[in-house]
Amino acid sequence: MSNPSYLLSNQQLIEVFNVTPTATAIHVAETAIIQMANDAMLAIWGKDKSVIGKSLEDALPELKGQPFIEMFKRVWNEGLIISGKDTAADLEVDGKIQTYYFDFEYRAIKDAEGKTICILHTAIDVTERFLKQQAIDRAEEKELALQREQALNEELAATNEELIATNEELQETQEALSILNIELEKRVDARVKELIESEERFKNMAEATDIFIAVGDETKCHLF
Question: Rounded to whole angstroms, how far apart are CA atoms 184 and 22?
Answer without folding.
Answer: 95
